[in-house]
Write a structure and sequence with these properties.
By secondary structure, this protein is α/β, with parallel strands linked by helices. Helix content is 35%, strand content 22%. GO terms for molecular function: 2 iron, 2 sulfur cluster binding; disulfide oxidoreductase activity; metal ion binding.
């Protein structure tokens, strides 16, 4: 059965990619060690990899990359949040999956693996429907089930780091003035924070409005609780200069981090 290889350097990545034949499906998982959803996704991917036999030449290849340590590779594949899955064959990106949905990840991998005949089923009938972590059949037709799954994901996402910023763009490239100002406040206070680019995932962007009962962005969450937008954060700091002190670290480069 296949297993997941850790890529720890750009040179190691380049060597691995060039060693694969054009037919191999390369499954790349970008992660951050501090993000709880990444640990969950690692278990999902390890289980999926075990379903694919080792063949010669390899039909699939499974690797994981620390998105923060190897930022050059992350930028090459537009990784703005973790966990983030990239499926590649012969140098071409076939599909990406952002977030911790086991169903979406399984569907994507099975779709492209089967296209190459790498993991073709021996059943003559239709494939069994994928199941989520609770064993219920996942269907796109059930809006309530879909909403429940999204809210579970959002519940994990707002707790991915003690301080989470949901913003338009990234800390290095904010896409609105309010997001830029809030990033500046966090940096001025040397706050270690996770961020999520809501422009990269419309499901999160729309769902979080209802989940938080807060219609605008940016949104700042602390310990899984919504603080609010830029104005609220400013008010909190005006009334209590130590509002973010508990989350302050000695400034050392970019204090931001990625999350999903």
């Amino acid at each position: 059965m296949s297993s997941i290889k850790e890529i720890t350097s750009v040179a190691g990545w380049e060597k691995h990619v060039t060693s694969l034949p054009p037919s191999t499906l390369l499954v790349v998982s970008f992660h951050a060690p501090w993000a709880a959803p990444c640990a969950q996704m690692a278990t999902v991917l390890s289980t999926l990899a075990s379903e694919y036999p080792v063949t010669e030449p390899p039909s699939t290849s499974w690797v994981k990359i620390n998105a923060e340590d190897l930022s050059d590779i992350s930028e090459e594949y537009n990784v703005t949040a973790v966990p983030f899955l990239v499926l590649i064959r012969n140098g071409e990106v076939l599909e990406t999956v952002s977030g911790s949905s086991a169903v979406r990840v399984r569907n994507a991998i099975e779709s492209h693996a089967n296209k190459a005949g790498a993991a073709a089923t021996t059943n003559s009938g239709p494939a069994a429907a994928p199941r989520d972590g609770e064993g219920d059949v996942a269907t796109e037709e059930d809006p309530e089930k879909k909403k429940q799954d999204l809210f579970r994901r959002l519940g994990d996402l707002v707790k991915a780091a003690p301080v989470m910023l949901f913003m338009k763009g990234t800390p290095s490239e904010p896409k609105c003035g309010f997001s830029r100002q809030l990033v500046g406040i966090l940096r001025d206070n040397a706050v270690k924070y996770g961020f999520f680019n809501i422009l990269a995932d419309d499901e999160v962007r729309q769902g979080l409005k209802e989940f938080a009962d807060w219609p605008t962005f940016p949104q700042l969450w602390v310990d899984g609780e919504l603080v609010g937008g830029l104005d609220i954060v400013k008010e909190e700091l005006d009334s209590n200069a130590d509002f973010l002190k508990a989350y302050s670290v000695k400034a050392n480069g970019d204090v931001s981090a990625m999350a999903s």
